[in-house]
């Protein structure tokens, strides 16, 4: 869509910068900073992580503007979601707020931890939730040898694995690992960073380096672009989130409903937040979240407002991103 000067003015006029405390530290984040704004079709969220460069943040901004200024119609009332477990030991405490779930994504390859730490976390999840299926997300931090050791452990212990998410960093490594895993058994690889952190999001599919694509609406420039990538790639997809509030998660829910993936989406992460800005946060209920535009809670909007320094930093960042779109 064309982003006119009028739209930019409207975004700036309605922009609100928020600091959301986390229930649990996740990927080093204890407070999630986000910027939300209102368009004709509801509120949208712009929340690229602070370390992301302006060029990457501008892609996230295009996605948020599209969501606020497009009349997307929900293609389902709810979508299934997985639970998410950071690289922590207090498994039951962290997973309880997710309620009922069939699948849990477990973070592995955490800096400062070992493969044995990952094994212990996996086994604790299966001890507490023996019927659950698991996904393991390494965020590209394993080398090929370590990823194979993990896979051998999973196969030896008959662990019900849906897939390994971004086990290694590069597309070339993903392709090599995929070939080696096929010799071991039926272990699928899902690509995340190899889709959203490269110049060509289709390259990983074209290289036959993954079995599944993890799609996040914001880093891919919005719902319309993510749908086009899914269709062109021709692979199964999992729609996931990037630690957004319920405002941001709603965009992912609309995308997941459109794509109708058989895989549960990674959109239940509002359960990792200590607070949210909506009247009805998108906390999973019976393993599902609604496909809806959540209404804003004005009292929480005030309480969660960022301090003046944070606000100015985000508005400055927004102004720079506008120049790139």
Q: In a nutshell, what does this entry contain?
A:
With 325 residues, the chain is an alpha/beta fold. Helices cover 38% and strands 19% of the residues. 47% of the residues are buried.
* Terminal-residue CA separation: 11 Å
Q: Care to count the β-strands?
A: 12
Instruction: Please state the overall shape, judged from the principal axes of the Cα atoms.
Output: globular
* Number of DSSP helical runs: 12
Question: What structural class do the secondary elements suggest?
Answer: alpha/beta
- According to CATH, the fold-level topology of the largest domain is TIM Barrel
Return Rg in Å. 19 Å
The helicity comes to: 25-40%
Q: What average pLDDT do the residues reach?
A: 96
Name the helix and strand elements from N-terminus to C-terminus, one letter apiece: HEEEHEEHEHEHEHEHHEHEHEHH
| CATH homologous superfamily caption of the largest domain | Enolase-like C-terminal domain
